Amino acid sequence: MAIEQRRRTDHLTGEPAPDPPRIAWRKQMRVRVLDAARELTCEAGWDQVSLSAVAARAQVSRPSVYKEFGNRAGLGRALVVRETRQFLAGVADTLHPGLPDSHACLEAAILYVLTEADRQPLIRAVIAAARHGSDSLLPYLTARADPIFDAGQGLVKDWLGTRYPEQDTEALEMTADVIVRMTISHLILPADAPRTTARRLATAALKLLREPTTEGGAR
Fold it and tell me: Is the dihedral of CA 204, 206, 208, 210 positive or negative?
């Protein structure tokens, strides 16, 4: 009955009804906890962050943090997922609609990742710690089975599909996989200036796409 009443209110006002107090508090608490975890990670690194410290910074109880995130690993995962989603939104804006030339567009997107990561405090902190082999948040940025990696790969694959509609799914997936893996690799262990790396990665990745075949199977 309450749900139906909210739907009627939404329909009449054109705006969603406010959340019930309990749900609103939980959402606010979650944001406060993630903000606190982010601040502490940027200050000292994830290895030094405890749930007690996060709860104290967020001014909530430790049991509330456990109830919302399960454990420290759950909090770390939620923190990196939130940060990466915001980061990927910037990548998406670079790709769509993007520059008319596909190579230039991909190069710009890779360059955005390589340069913007240095401007984002949390991502910069994770990468800096990873270069010294000490930060345990890194797996959430690099693990193949992680939804963060899949989100990045899916974003690039969709973009490739709009630019190269003649390519089959396997070629698009392989190319997207290489782009994401190599970009992350250069984030952790940079070899050249970001602009040089972006250009080289874009060139190498697009060469993986299969040339259209003519009748009879000739390249």
Answer: negative
In single-letter form, the type of residue at position 41 comes to T
Angle between helices 21-44 and 51-58 (to 10 degrees): 120
pTM above 0.90, yes or no: no
Reduced to 3 states (helix: H, G, I; strand: E, B; else coil), residue 48 is helix
Q: Are 156 and 113 in contact (CB under 8 A)?
A: no
147 exposed, middle or buried (CB, 10 Å; 0-12, 13-18, 19+)?
A: middle
**Between the CA atoms of 207, 141, 90 and 54, what dihedral angle is there, to the nearest 10 degrees?**
-170
Q: What is the pLDDT along the chain (219 residues), one digit of tens a residue?
A: 444 544 544 555 556 677 788 888 889 999 999 999 999 988 888 888 899 999 999 999 999 999 999 999 889 888 888 888 888 899 999 999 999 999 999 999 999 999 988 888 888 777 776 666 665 666 665 554 456 678 889 999 999 999 999 999 999 999 999 999 999 889 888 889 999 999 999 999 999 997 655 444 333
d(CA 98, CA 181): 21
* Structure-block tokens of residue 198: 């972006």
Residue with tokens 């770390």: 76
